[in-house]
Write a structure and sequence with these properties.
Blueprint: E1 11-16, H1 21-36, E2 45-50, H2 56-70, H3 78-87, E3 88-92, H4 101-107, E4 113-118, H5 125-134, E5 143-146, H6 154-165, E6 173-175, H7 183-193, E7 207-215, H8 224-249, H9 258-270, E8 280-285, H10 294-297, E9 308-313, E10 325-330, E11 337-344, E12 362-368, E13 372-380, E14 389-397, H11 398-401, H12 403-407, H13 412-422, H14 431-447, E15 454-456, H15 464-471
Parallel strand pairs: 1-2, 1-4, 2-3, 4-5, 5-6, 7-10, 8-15
Antiparallel strand pairs: 7-11, 8-9, 9-10, 11-12, 12-13, 13-14
Helix pairs in contact: 1-2, 1-13, 6-14, 8-9, 8-14, 9-14
Bound molecules: NADP nicotinamide-adenine-dinucleotide phosphate.
Length: 481
């Protein structure tokens, strides 16, 4: 299959927070990969900005180290790498002060797309937006990319939206949720809306339930102080899992167009029922062999924050009334898995005697570790044993199905940065969407104010109570493995 890389127009991209962890692990390596893929025109400029008074050579060394650490050896090319590093520039500036801004202004060119990536703490989003306008660096065609977390509740999200809106209009604001940049997540829309096969069955008449799992093996060490204030509900459910839920549940948009897609997602969020206390399980990982507990990791023996949450969610609309969506996410679980499983109902009548062998059809959409989909279907067990049924997966690993191109899929961040340059907001959250997501999340969090989460053993699937959440409905979670 021939790779189809669509180059973009030359652009100037300023990465604020260019010496930080996200820039090192994702943004700089991602830009290098797009450069290597021939997508970044050589006239483009990539300007790093942070407070540290660093010489340009120092920043290029930092970028070279990031590439060495986070780009696979077979994707490294010394000639391309040298040319890429040569494109990098660096400006020392303070988001909250006046130093460095004139310097940045002097490096910007006219006539090209200007994009500004705010890879800094959220408290700096407002000051950066303000200064970009004050110094005439951003104009009405410029774009800003805003990292998560976007607020910590409805009130703070509204305030942040209002601050950004003072300087930029909505079409210029790209609120990033890197889950939306994943190949499989976009494929979810392709599978749903480019095939006739699934859509007629995609409703409560045929879908028994949907499970969304985001399980991690790591603990919170390294992000402890942020995480302990946030917990799994704010860190994962309000944004990433809510976005996945929306893409599964939304109505077909009239066109694959940013506002058409986001309008449909918003309708799903607004149709979510409030969650009942009985439909929530919160957990906190305990110490394991040679592993600290959550409370040790966050150095807070009284912490009430959850490192695990499982929820049963209902969507009150015609399509989904009666089909529960079960969400669960947690840290220090048995395996690192992100997947969506759509479980269909049983056929109305079995013509086979071997009905015990029957299992539900399940469409599993894997986001990680290896992105792909599989559809579990019933077939006849091969051999002379009569008509015995067995379930087999129709498996599609994107890497295998698409050959070399599939194994070289851009990382979510690279894809999203290129979308910013193209001016395509489809995979970014709109302000009203984020506010609606908080409006649903806040009362859920209020329900457990002051309550202690259940302890769970590391390396398991979370607290026992989470298993009960589905057992009591006569269903079971898919195994985390
Ligand atoms: P970080 O490692 O703490 O880096 C922060 C960056 O901001 C540094 O380059 C820092 O450089 C710069 N900075 C701090 N104060 C500044 C100021 N007053 N003016 C200009 N620059 C300033 O943070 P991070 O982990 O990269 O995270 C950045 C953003 O991405 C945050 O919003 C975070 O929530 C989000 N995010 C990060 C990850 C991740 O994996 N790291 C994942 C999802 C979202 P100086 O100290 O030199 O100024």
């Amino acid at each position: 299959m021939v790779s189809r890389v669509i180059p973009v127009e030359p652009f100037d991209l300023v990465v604020f927070g260019a010496t930080g962890d996200l820039a090192r692990r994702k943004i700089l390596p991602g830009l290098y990969r797009r450069w290597l893929g021939g997508q970044i025109p050589p006239e483009s400029r990539l300007i790093g900005a942070a407070r540290s008074a660093m010489a340009l050579a120092g920043f290029r060394d930092f970028a070279a180290q990031a590439i060495a650490e986070f780009v696979a050896a077979d994707k490294r090319d010394p000639v391309a790498e040298a040319a890429f590093l040569d494109r990098l520039d660096y400006v020392a500036l303070d988001a909250t002060g006046e130093t460095g801004w004139a310097d940045l202004s002097a490096r910007m060119r006219g006539g090209v797309v200007r994009a500004f990536y705010f890879s800094v703490a959220p408290a700096l989003f407002g000051p950066l937006a303000e200064r970009l306008k004050l110094h005439g660096i951003a104009d009405d065609d410029s774009r800003i990319v805003v990292e998560k977390p976007f607020g910590s509740d409805l009130e703070t999200a509204r305030a942040l939206n209002a601050t950004l809106a003072r300087h930029f209009h909505e079409a210029q604001i790209y609120r990033i949720d890197h889950y939306l940049g994943k190949e499989t997540v976009q494929n979810l829309m392709a599978v749903r809306f480019a095939n006739i096969l699934f859509e007629p069955l995609w409703n409560s008449q045929y879908v028994d339930h949907v499970q969304i799992t985001v399980a991690e093996t790591v603990g919170v060490a390294g992000r402890a102080s942020y995480y302990d204030k946030s917990g799994a509900m704010r860190d994962m459910v309000q944004n990433h899992m809510m976005q996945l839920l929306c893409l599964i549940a939304m109505e077909p948009p009239y066109h694959f167009d940013p506002d058409a897609v986001r309008d449909e997602k918003l309708k799903v969020i607004r149709a979510l029922d409030p969650v009942r206390p009985a439909d929530i399980v919160r957990g906190q990982y305990l110490a394991g062999i040679g592993q600290p507990s959550y409370r040790d990791d966050v150095e807070n023996p009284e912490s009430q924050s959850e490192s695990f949450v499982a929820l049963r969610v209902n969507i009150s609309n015609w399509r989904w009334k009666g089909t529960p969506f079960y969400l669960r996410t947690g840290k220090r679980l048995r395996a690192r898995v992100s997947e969506i499983a759509v479980t269909f109902k049983e056929p109305p009548h079995s013509i086979f005697d071997d009905a015990q062998g029957w299992r539900e059809n399940v469409l599993v959409i894997r986001l990680q570790p290896d992105e792909g989909m599989n559809l579990k279907v019933m077939i006849k067990e091969p051999g002379p044993g009569g008509m015995r049924l067995v379930q087999v997966p129709l498996d599609m690993s994107f890497a295998e199905a698409l050959g070399e191109e599939g194994s070289d899929m851009p990382d979510a961040y690279e894809r999203l940065i290129m979308d910013v340059i193209r001016g395509n907001q489809t995979l970014f959250m709109r302000g009203d969407e984020v506010e609606a997501a908080w409006a649903w999340t806040d009362p859920v969090i209020d329900l457990w104010e002051g309550e202690r989460p259940q302890g769970y053993e590391p390396g398991t699937s979370g607290p026992e109570e989470a298993l009960m959440l589905m057992h009591r409905d006569g269903r079971r979670w898919r195994e985390i493995r």
